[in-house]
Amino acid sequence: MFEKPSYANLFRAWFADFPSRNRQVDFHPEDGATTKVGGASRSLWAHGLPGDPLQRRIDVIAENVAELRDDVNQLKHDISQLESRQGAALSTEATRRLEEHAALYGKLETAQTGGLHISLIGLIWLSVGVLFTSVPSEIAALR
Q1: Of the candidates 19, 80, 78, 70, which has an alpha carbon nearest to the alpha carbon of residue 42?
Q2: pTM of the full predicted structure?
Q3: What's the CA gap between 61 and 45, in Å, rounded?
Q4: Which residue from 5, 40, 1, 45 is spatially nearest to 20, judged by alpha carbons?
Q5: Which of 21, 60, 70, 132 is the most exposed place for a label (fewest CB within 10 A)?
Q6: Cβ proximity of 57 and 50 under 8 Å
Q7: For residues 46 and 33, what is the distance between their CA atoms, to the nearest angstrom?
Q8: H helices then E strands: how many in the chain?
Q9: How far is it, in rounded angstroms, from Cα 46 to Cα 36?
């Protein structure tokens, strides 16, 4: 009736917000572990073994820095996309509210002043009625 969701729909939406049970984990001991949950990706640091030569350890650090750089670039891209979507949604909402405000203002104006000519005619008839109500008593007082 008032465009509110039913309790059953609210319960279904609440239940759908639970994390997925199908969690996919990819583990690569030489590169680190990557965990994917619902489309989101997290990666752990790649570790060199304690007996590895110094160059291997530097290569592992370089891989980690490259991974961090890629993650930061992806986050920047995601944030810019989200910002543009939110900006578009905000401008759409502002336009919609302005249109609804204009419609509401029109309805309010019609409700308050739409029958003004009828009220003016009623005022004239009221004046005539008051005049004709008081005139006979004035005429009777003259005799």
Answers
A1: 70
A2: 0.44
A3: 9
A4: 40
A5: 21
A6: no
A7: 8
A8: 3, 3
A9: 16
Q: What is the pLDDT of residues 25-56, one digit of tens each?
A: 544 555 444 444 444 555 666 777 778 888 88
List Cβ neighbours of 59 (8 Å cut-off, separation of 6 or more): 48
Distance, C-alpha 4 to centroid of its chain: 16
State pLDDT tens for residues 95-126. 999 999 999 998 888 877 777 788 889 999 99
Structure tokens of 29? 């001991």
**92 near 84, Cβ under 8 Å?**
no
Degrees to nearest 5, angle at CA 111 with 109 and 116:
85
Side chain identity, residue 41: S
In the DSSP assignment, the letter for residue 20 is P
**Chain Cα centroid distance, residue 126:** 53
CA 123, 125, 128, 129 dihedral sign is negative
| Amino acid, res. 77 | H
